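Dear Dr. H.,

I hope your travels went smoothly. While you were away I took the liberty of generating a structure for the chain from your last submission, since the lab meeting agenda had it listed for discussion. I wanted you to have the full record in hand beforehand rather than looking at slides cold. The sequence, exactly as received, is reproduced here:
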Amino acid sequence: MNIKGDRKELAVTYNTAIGAWFGRSRMISRDEMLNCVFRFGELPSNDLAFIDAAIPGHSRTLLGALGRGTAEQDLRHKVERAENYHIDFIRAEPGNGAALHSHDTEETFICLTGRWRVSWGTDGGDSVELDYLDGICCPPGVMRSFVNLSDQPALLLSILGGRDPGNVVWSEAIQLRIAAGQRRIAGTAAPRQGERAELSPSAAIATIRAGREGGEA
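The corresponding predicted structure, in token form, is as follows:
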């Protein structure tokens, strides 16, 4: 009998009497294991990780625990060596959360504190509310958003699957709102008819950050 998958354990054998596989652990140093530890109070964080922060009601802080995140995500994670999934904690004030977006892989949300609404579809027309430790798994390609329904700051856990989640795709329903939010924060006029203002995701986030910092000066 052959074991399924590309296993890393050593000397794996199947015990027919017991009906299970047995083997030895692959070697790993203590330092290597400690490099896989993350502590919540030490997680890197960013409140401008995605461009939808330009839209009122979509402010939130991402705390990076595991993996590398999406191609656009402006956040380093504490343990980047995680290869097959990515974990962020998301903290938001009441009435705030993420705008409608999708990934190329599954994304699971679990309510850790407060109460959250997760909506889906191009216009977010369907939704479900999550209480403590409730969760939802959003399939690839399905637009999803979430918002804190509580009357105080709340925490949501996001688990994004896949070795490489790729690019974020934002719903066409919020395209004009993101553009308007960027112009409002940056204090710039809308492009004239026939003009196209092209920004990379990182440049778009930098524009939002500069506009916020300018407003606080």
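Two observations you may find useful: Residues 189-193 have pLDDT under 50 and may be disordered. The helical segments are 30-34, 175-186, 201-216.

With kind regards,
E. W.
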